[in-house]
Design goal:
The complex is a heterodimer. Helices cover 43% and strands 17% of the residues of chain A. By secondary structure, chain A is of the alpha/beta class. In chain A, helix 1 packs across helix 6. By secondary structure, chain B is of the alpha/beta class. Chain B has nine helices and seven strands, in the order αββαβααβααβαβααβ. In chain B, strands 2-1-3-4-6-5-7 form a seven-stranded mixed beta sheet, sandwiched between helices. Classes of the chains: A alpha/beta, B alpha/beta. Strand 7 of chain A pairs parallel with strand 2 of chain B, so a sheet runs across the interface. Bound molecules: thiamine diphosphate and iron/sulfur cluster. Thiamine diphosphate binds next to helix 3 of chain B.
Chain lengths: 354, 247
């Protein structure tokens, strides 16, 4: 299946029956897929007049108790930020897909990874968090989309799938889920106050103290996510001295480079964050105890590398290699690994020990 | 015997609105219609950003509060999930005719089966009296301190007339609540708008001319006169679309 379509099929199998979107390359196959498939399963596809309208339709549908999704690519996600902040503030579950392209501005339609800050550090206004999941294969797209709906319901919070143009267009054989999706009751939904107290969904608090109380309660939710939802994949990490860090498309390529390095006797390993928020920092701290150097590889000028540095916390040097809206080749990354290996040898042979 | 009992579709919460503000009357009319149609338990409302931002505390129905201008999109999401429910938005003129112009036009063009109560007080109330898209030419506001000029600030938008050109619109009317006779007419229009939705005819909207004494800088009584003398000539009252099913 194609990456973008795989998200759609996984969502439908996870019980998503409502999709509101607006076309943008390189994600349009996803709304197109939903337009074809949703009516057949009794769902609704609606092409909104803008990304702003689409995310607010998601807000309404989520508030009415539905499993609902929207997708876009970088410039469109910028427009959705208002709605994402409102979803988080009003505690509504929804899945938002960003098939990243290059930026800033209109950028390019080639794959990019420069929305990392926007995805993981907020993007919209206010002190909110999203669970951000970054798949690296079409199968993982399916597995994480399925999980995203369950996580959104569990925490009553939006969850973002951070894909990119390369993963979106890639075709791979997959196994689709066939089990029944988990369903949580939603007694808070605004479905009409039949035989119950009425429900209110809002994010406005007139008094500062009330808003603080609300935010403190949300903080506990963010904390629970930090404790329970960190995900990471490790490759050749048992004895890694040079730790390559990458996510999504870049991680697939870095994996090849790491294998090449192993073939020439360099002890390289790959640490691949799957949850970009919460960031799997313990895995980095563990790795930093054994490694000599880290190399963060991204399709950006350096965004995730800041979280890598925070997690490594000065224990070992953290280097960065980035391309902008150009997919790096395994050889480029391999060359970086070799360079770091040489530098390390040189440093070890002389001054290093401090 | 109580002749004017509090509608069941209103909570006990006292208004926060200023003296002479029309929002309270309009809330009451909507609540009375909900009671009369016996849809309190099957209605979901969407409140705006503006002076009616907390109307989820007043309407005794399930309510969602939307981002500034986005209520028609939020209502669309609700209605698509719950097609059997009655869904309405309650919006001011800044909310609907400025930041949310795209959302209202497209909800109307889609023929979204929702009802919008549009409160036109020709000014931004909540943020302290700035110019609205509905502010009249010559009208002084905090951001048109020399009076609105058409050559630099453009013309006020007639929302009811504009939406009446769209095929998806089933019912659109402009009413006022400045005296008991007009209040009765307004209520009838609101009722028709909800009935259009119940009958699945399409999008319905009632524009209600309203007073904002606080930001107009007038007494409640002067405000009524100002509305009659200035607003009604530019914003004529009437039904701009009326399907035969609700006549
Ligand atoms: C995105 C955004 N922009 C601006 C505001 C500030 N704001 C709050 S209310 C309002 C105007 C409301 O005016 P109107 O819709 O006419 O309602 P009224 O208060 O007059 O009833 C504005 C601009 C906001 N809350 N959100
Ligand atoms: S500011 Fe104007 S619109 Fe707002 S409550 Fe007061 S009178 Fe009403």
């Amino acid at each position: 299946m194609k990456g973008n379509e795989a998200i759609g099929e996984a969502a439908i199998r996870a019980g998503c029956r409502y999709f509101f979107g607006y076309p943008i390359t390189p994600q349009s196959e996803l709304p197109e897929y939903m337009a074809r498939r949703l009516p057949a399963v009794g769902g609704v596809f609606l092409q909104a007049e803008s990304e702003i309208a689409a995310i607010n339709m998601v807000y309404g549908a989520a508030g009415a108790g539905a499993r609902v999704m929207t997708s876009s690519s970088s410039p469109g996600i910028s427009l959705k930020q208002e709605g994402i902040s409102y979803l988080a503030g009003a505690e509504l579950p929804a899945v938002i897909v960003n098939v990243m392209r290059g930026g800033p501005g209109l950028g390019s339609i080639q794959p990019g990874q420069s929305d990392y800050f926007q995805a993981t550090k907020g993007g919209g206004h206010g002190d909110y968090r999203l669970i951000v999941l970054a798949p690296a294969s079409v199968q993982e797209i399916i597995d994480l989309t399925w999980e995203a709906f369950a996580l959104a319901d569990q925490y009553r919070n939006p969850v973002m799938i951070l894909s990119d143009g390369m993963l979106g267009q890639m075709m791979e054989p997959v196994v689709l889920p066939t089990q029944e999706p988990p369903v949580l009751p939603k007694p808070w939904a605004t479905t009409g106050a039949v035989n119950r107290e009425r429900n209110e969904i809002f994010s406005f608090f007139m008094q500062g103290e009330q808003l603080e109380e609300h935010n403190r309660r949300l903080e506990q939710k963010w904390q629970a996510m930090v404790e329970r939802e960190k995900r990471v994949a490790e490759f050749f990490m048992e004895d890694a001295e040079i730790v390559v860090v990458a996510y999504g498309t870049t991680a697939r390529i870095a994996r090849r480079a790491v294998r090449q390095a192993r073939q020439v006797g360099i002890k390289a390993g790959l640490l691949r964050p799957i949850s970009l928020w919460p960031f799997p920092d313990e895995a980095f701290q563990r790795a930093a105890r054994k490694a000599r150097v880290f190399l963060s590889v991204e399709m950006s000028l350096g965004q995730m590398v800041e979280d890598v540095r925070l997690a490594v916390n000065g224990q070992v040097p953290v280097h960065f290699y980035g391309r902008v809206s150009v997919v790096p080749s395994p050889d480029e990354i391999f060359a970086m690994i070799c360079q770091l290996a040489d530098e390390e040898v040189a440093v070890n042979g002389s001054v290093r020990s401090a | 015997m109580a002749v004017f009992a509090r509608p069941k579709a209103l909570t006990e919460k006292p208004w926060h609105f200023c003296p002479g503000c029309s929002h309270g009357i309009i809330h009451t009319l909507v609540a009375e219609v909900i009671d009369e149609l016996n849809i309190r338990e099957t209605t979901v409302g969407v409140c705006p950003v503006g002076c009616a931002v907390v109307s989820h505390e007043y309407f005794n129905v399930d309510m969602q509060q939307a981002a500034h201008g986005r209520a028609p999109a939020v209502a669309t999401g609700i209605k698509r999930v719950l097609p059997e429910r009655t869904v309405f938005t309650y919006q001011g003129d800044g909310d609907l005719a400025s930041i949310g112009t795209a959302e209202i036009i497209h909800a109307a063009a889609r023929g979204e089966k929702i009802t919008t109560i549009f409160v036109n007080n020709a000014i931004y109330g909540m943020t302290g009296g700035q110019m609205a898209p509905t502010t009249l030419l010559g009208q002084v506001t905090t951001t048109s301190p020399f009076g609105r000029r058409q050559d630099t600030q453009g013309y006020p938008i007639r929302v009811a007339e504009m939406l009446a050109t769209l095929e998806g619109v089933a019912y659109v009317a402009r009413v006022s609540v400045h005296n008991p006779k007009e209040i009765n007419r307004a209520k009838k229009a609101i009722r028709r708008a909800f009935e259009c939705q119940q009958k699945g005819l399409g999008f319905s909207l009632v524009e209600v001319l309203a007073c904002c004494p606080t930001n107009w800088g007038l007494s409640p009584k002067e405000s009524i006169n100002w509305l009659v003398e200035n607003m009604i000539p530019y914003y004529p009252l009437g039904e701009y679309r009326l399907p035969k099913e609700v006549q």
